Amino acid sequence: MQMPPETKTVLFLGASTGIGQSALKHTLAAGHRCVALCRDPTKLEKIFPSDSSANLKIIRGNAHDVAAVARCLQTDKRVVDVVVTTIGAKPVPLKLTVDDPDVCKKGAATLLEALAQLRHSGITGAPHIIACSTAGFSRFGRNIPLAMIPIYALFVKVPGEDKVVMEDRIAESGESFTIIGPSHLIDGESSKPIRVGIEDPTNGPVSDVVGYSISREDAGKWLANNLVLQIDAKYLNKNVLITY
């Protein structure tokens, strides 16, 4: 495969399904080198066979393991150019919770500790961290439709609070970042235009948007095209809401 003029190395955490898998697919299609850390590599190997994905390295490991994340971050004497983390927990609907209520905050702490350890050992570089959160938990006002508030209060409260801690840890870390907050996630692919809202973590909304849903496939494609393949300065160190 011919490399693009500025080939990036991108680490994916949580790309076995959903937004992460879509973003990985579109990043690979653009010719960039990708590393995917996952607990069960067979899930990605079925989708991206080694004979058709020469730019993809799939590594078995846990995104909560500092040593595993550090190994994936390092490329030669530098860290990767971009980190995309879309890790999340599985819903437990009957209990209105998820199987790991701390999955995102632990993932953020692990990633930042791995970066710190690498730099302490002489590895240089500063990756752009792209972390997947959710709409509905802004400190600066409502960014979901009124009709969705009871649903988020019941079913998204626990994972939403976890993602807020993740957002804070990344925003306060001093690393370059973008937090992407999709509205309610659905399956499929659509030709609907994607609307974007931007929020500064300290100063509040730059531009507002409220919407009901977006598909995982379209959210991942938008992430790849607008935050990985190229990055507009208006998205740097901001929370970005995407919805139809």
Automatic annotation (TrEMBL):
<protein>
    <recommendedName>
        <fullName>NAD(P)-binding domain-containing protein</fullName>
    </recommendedName>
</protein>
<dbReference type="GO" id="GO:0042602">
    <property type="term" value="F:riboflavin reductase (NADPH) activity"/>
</dbReference>
<dbReference type="Pfam" id="PF13460">
    <property type="entry name" value="NAD_binding_10"/>
</dbReference>
<dbReference type="InterPro" id="IPR016040">
    <property type="entry name" value="NAD(P)-bd_dom"/>
</dbReference>
<dbReference type="InterPro" id="IPR051606">
    <property type="entry name" value="Polyketide_Oxido-like"/>
</dbReference>
<comment type="similarity">
    <text>Belongs to the avfA family.</text>
</comment>
<dbReference type="InterPro" id="IPR036291">
    <property type="entry name" value="NAD(P)-bd_dom_sf"/>
</dbReference>
<dbReference type="GO" id="GO:0004074">
    <property type="term" value="F:biliverdin reductase [NAD(P)H] activity"/>
</dbReference>
<feature type="domain" description="NAD(P)-binding">
    <location>
        <begin position="14"/>
        <end position="225"/>
    </location>
</feature>
